[in-house]
Design goal:
With about 140 residues, the chain is α+β, with helices and mostly antiparallel strands. It has 3 helices and 5 strands, in the order H-E-H-E-E-E-E-H. The longest helix has 23 residues.
């Protein structure tokens, strides 16, 4: 998959993470029951006064996701009922979440590269297993 298509699969048509300073999430139980990590998100950018809703499946918004912005209502209580407020970095399509995912991927890649570059040494032969040639000619 090319970088451009990977960005689109992760973030949708914008190919870019969403700015959010508040995040609310709710598991999509139907998808969870099928083994898919489906989560409904409400993302708020309080500085810009906008909100975006998104369903994320296995960490990706999908290539056809088009973020639509809405004004943040004065009372968000009814909007976020049954959602848990979490750190925006928990959402993989936010700026903070994308940075967290990238950092975790870099750490994993570095560990994998280090392990491949520095394999475990072969154990030395046990001295008790080495037979000495006692019949050697002088």
């Amino acid at each position: 998959m090319t970088e451009s298509s990977e960005l689109r699969a992760t973030f949708g048509t914008t190919k870019a993470p969403i700015q959010a300073d508040k995040a609310f999430k709710k598991p999509l139980q139907h998808f969870q029951d099928m083994g898919v990590d489906g989560i409904a998100w409400i993302l708020l950018d309080t500085d810009a006064g906008i909100r975006i809703s998104a369903n994320i499946y296995n960490g990706k918004a999908g290539k056809n996701f088009q973020p639509k912005t809405f004004d943040i209502p004065e009372d968000i209580g009814p909007l976020t009922k049954n959602y848990d407020e979490v750190d925006p970095a928990e959402c993989p399509i936010t700026v903070a979440g994308a940075a967290k995912v990238a950092a975790e991927a870099a750490t994993t890649e570095a560990a994998t590269t280090e392990a491949a570059a520095d394999p475990e040494p072969e154990p030395d032969a046990d001295a008790s297993e080495v037979e000495e040639d006692t019949d050697a000619e002088a």
